[in-house]
Amino acid sequence: MTEHLKSLVRTIPDFPEPGIMFRDVTTLFADPAGMAGSIRGMADHAGAFPKFDCVAGIEARGFILGAALAIELGVGFVPLRKKGKLPGATLHEDYALEYGTDTLEVHQDAINEGDRVLLIDDLIATGGTALAAHRLVTRAGGIVPAAFFVIDLPELGGAAKLRAAGLEVRVLMDFDGA
């Protein structure tokens, strides 16, 4: 199944800049069996853990996966948004990008103290955004035992950074190169 799912991911060379091989999951999402297989694969991974209280999806493709996985697991969904997108009182976490900084936010009341939260996004590269998400959820009172991704780019080291921070990392597939 993994090879079939991997075949549904489109590679776009030199995007967003020369030398980058962009792994586009929109083609995977567009395929009904591919999308269902991705969610089933992540749900199978979740079965190895004690029950989660919610799934927190990282903007933007993490929303697509996270909402579907939350339904599959029978738990709630919490969006981790870019700055200025949430209407209520928020907590925020700044993080470094290759060319600047960005901010993730969550509603202050979205996560209860002690909630077991599963982080999810489409791809793990350098790990900066996922580590910021982990810090944010922890500050909100959640416990983050694991982070799931459809794709890992192992050469960029993000999954290793998350493991070093104490998270279990699960991926459905990996691709060589940046």
Task: Kindly summarize this structure in a few lines.
With 178 residues, this protein is an alpha/beta fold. It is built from 6 helices and 9 strands.
Account of the 3D structure:
- The chain is α/β, with parallel strands linked by helices and 178 residues long.
- It has a domain at 51-174: Rossmann fold.
- Helices cover 33% and strands 35% of the residues.
- It has 6 helices and 9 strands, in the order αββααβαββββαβαβ.
- The protein has helices spanning 2-7, 26-30, 32-46, 61-73, 128-139, 158-164; strands at 10-13, 21-24, 54-58, 76-82, 90-97, 100-107, 116-124, 143-152, 168-174.
- A 7-stranded mixed beta sheet has the order 5-6-4-3-7-8-9, sandwiched between helices. A two-stranded antiparallel sheet has the order 1-2.
- A hairpin with a 2-residue loop joins β5 and β6.
- α3 (32-46) crosses α4.
- The longest helix is centred in the first third of the chain and has 15 residues, at 32-46.
- It is globular and about 40 Å long.
- The model has no long low-confidence stretch (mean pLDDT 95).
